[in-house]
Each structure stands twice: as structure tokens, then as C-alpha cells.
Design a protein that fits this description.
The protein has 282 residues and is α/β, with parallel strands linked by helices. It is built from 7 helices and 10 strands. The strands form 2 sheets. Strands 6-7-8-3-9-10 form a 6-stranded mixed β-sheet, with helices on both faces. It has a 4-stranded antiparallel β-sheet with strand order 2-1-4-5, covered by helices on one side. The longest helix is centred in the last third of the chain and has 17 residues, at 191-207. The relative contact order is 0.18. Bound molecules: adenosine-5'-triphosphate. The site of adenosine-5'-triphosphate (ATP) has 10 residues, from helix 1. This is ABC transporter ATP-binding protein. GO terms for molecular function: ATP binding; ATP hydrolysis activity.
């Protein structure tokens, strides 16, 4: 195998078991199961990119709110590694995800109106045990890496769309010790800003091996281009006679040899078609 595509999977970073979520009496998603493991590539430090696609209203945002602990599941568990505990028999003990553990960026890239970029990033680090000087150095390093240094004292209303997106992503990156969830981060963006967000994904992934990005999109080509693991969420008409979202299919693009390519091949296009066919039936 080309060494560029070699990888090894190790410890579990996210385990979703029999997850169901209802609003009142209405079940929105049901029996969602998935397990994602940390992936190591020779000579690289890299997080993963996981895409969730599905037709409108199938429950992607609901699933994401559960993944970030913003809503409580009706049943089932979302487990993440508990880094406060010692490793037992080679395994990091797991804990249930709680609000604040995981970064969440909504499609509007919401920012604090009354904080400058620098103040907002300092606020993101409020739980960190680091000293003020260490926090300052960390923020300045990231601002420089993300091309935001000159805008550090500006307020959200003074920022361009691209600067807002990068600030919102950076805020969550600094406050989260786990994966980050991005609900439709490419929605309504022009080609330039799509490229900016794609670059930001890379910066997040490369900053630490645990920095996994989980995102949803209606752009299936983009999902296949970026993801190394992809889930299709939709209605399984053969199982539920009412409309309840569940995971219909998982594509492990690493195992399929389709992850980390510089350009789209005919195999990528075939996968796009297969995903769209599943979605049309869901
Ligand atoms: N707070 C809520 N209370 C009641 N029903 C809700 C609530 N939020 C979402 N829903 C319903 O849950 C279903 C799934 O919505 P959700 O936003 O999770 O779907 P989605 O797949 O993200 O859709 P889209 O792709 O259009 O953003 C919809 O029928 C929606 O009306």
C-alpha cells in the first residue's frame, strides 16, 4: 500500500450506544450506534474528519446537539474518554458527554457581540489551569497561525465573514478537549469562504491528534472530499413506519482507500452517487 494511505486505529474516541432522542412525545432519532477510534498515520499528527449527511429534517442537528451534551438522550449513551482517570488495562475509562466537554459551532458562527477576538479567546480558556501569560502566548500563537493577528482587538461587527468563521472555530478549538461538532459549516458560503473553512478544518486536525471534526452538510461531494468516515442519517422505511431518523449506512473512507486524496477519482464519484441513492430512498 502507498505509505501515504497507511494508518492504524487505536483507542475509542467516541462511542454512541442505542441513542434515541425525542422532543415531547415525538421521537426524532432512534437507535443510533457508532464507534470511532483514534487513527494514527505514520509520520503525521492528525485528527479525523467525520461527515454526517442526510435529507432535511432527518435529525442531523438533533443528533449533533446530543453529541455535544446540549440535549439529554431519551435513551442510550454518548461516551467519550475520561482523561481525568488513569488508564486501566490499556483503556482510558469512558464517561458520558456533558455540556461544555465538546466544541459546537452553529451555521451562523455565533460570536459574543461585546468581546474582541482576543477577549473571546481568553474567555474560551477560562477553565484552563494555565497561567495568564501561558494563555496569552497560546492565543497569540493561534491568532498568528490562523491569520487573525491583526484583527485581534476588533469586535464581531468589524470582522469579515471569513474572520468570523475562523474566530468561532478557534474559540471552540481552545475550549474543547475532544472532538468538535460543526452543524452545516459550509451552508450559504461563497467559494472563498468555503476554502477558508476547509483550511480551518486542516488547522484543527493538525493541531492535535484528538482534534476530530464532526460536521454535517448537504453538499455530498464536499463530504466525500473531506471525510475519512461518513454516516448517512435518514428514515429507514422498512423498520419504522413513522418518520424517525437513524443511521442507514457508514462508509469508512480510510478502509475504502478514499481518504486523504488530493483529488477526486472516479471511485469518489461512484461513492457520491451511492450516497445520493441511499438518501433519495430515505
Ligand atoms: N426543539 C424542537 N422541538 C420539537 N421538534 C423539533 C425541535 N427541533 C427540531 N425538531 C424537529 O425534529 C426534526 C429533525 O430536525 P433537525 O433540525 O434535527 O433535522 P436536520 O436533519 O438537521 O434538518 P436540516 O437539514 O433541515 O437542518 C424536524 O421534524 C424538526 O421539526
Amino acid at each position: 500500500m502507498n505509505p501515504k494511505y497507511e494508518y492504524e486505529q487505536k483507542e475509542t474516541i467516541l462511542h454512541v450506544e442505542h441513542l434515541s432522542v425525542a422532543y415531547g412525545n415525538k421521537t426524532i432519532i432512534q437507535n443510533i450506534n457508532l464507534e470511532e477510534k483514534n487513527c494514527y498515520r505514520p509520520g503525521k499528527q492528525q485528527g479525523q474528519t467525520i461527515a454526517v449527511v442526510g435529507r432535511s429534517g432527518r435529525g442531523k442537528s438533533t443528533f449533533f446537539k446530543a453529541l455535544t451534551g446540549l440535549i439529554t438522550p431519551t435513551s442510550g449513551n454518548i461516551l467519550i474518554p475520561d482523561f481525568s482517570k488513569e488508564i486501566v488495562n490499556g483503556q482510558q475509562p469512558a464517561k458520558k458527554v456533558a455540556e461544555g466537554d465538546v466544541g459546537f459551532v452553529d451555521q451562523k458562527y455565533t460570536l459574543f457581540r461585546h468581546k474582541t477576538i482576543y477577549q473571546a479567546l481568553m474567555f474560551s480558556l477560562r477553565q484552563s489551569p494555565e497561567s495568564k501569560e501561558q494563555k496569552h502566548d497560546k492565543i497569540m500563537h493561534h491568532l498568528q497561525q490562523w491569520g487573525l493577528e491583526s484583527a485581534k482587538d476588533q469586535y464581531p461587527c468589524e470582522l469579515s465573514g471569513g474572520q468570523r468563521q475562523r474566530t468561532a472555530l478557534l474559540e471552540q478549538l481552545l475550549s474543547s478537549g475532544y472532538y468538535m461538532v460543526l452543524d452545516e459549516p459550509f451552508s450559504g458560503l461563497d467559494v472563498g469562504n468555503i476554502a477558508n473553512v476547509k483550511d480551518a478544518f486542516k488547522l484543527i486536525n493538525d493541531s492535535h491528534e484528538l482534534n476530530t471534526v464532526i460536521f454535517s452538510t448537504h453538499d455530498i461531494e464536499l463530504a466525500v472530499e473531506l471525510a475519512d468516515s461518513l454516516y448517512v442519517l435518514g428514515y429507514d422505511k422498512s423498520v419504522h413506519n413513522n418518520n424517525v431518523g437513524t443511521l442507514l449506512k457508514h462508509f469508512d473512507l480510510k478502509a475504502l482507500g478514499l481518504a486523504w486524496h488530493d483529488s477526486f477519482t472516479s471511485a469518489h464519484l461512484d461513492l457520491v452517487k451511492e450516497i445520493k441513492d441511499i438518501m433519495l430512498r430515505s
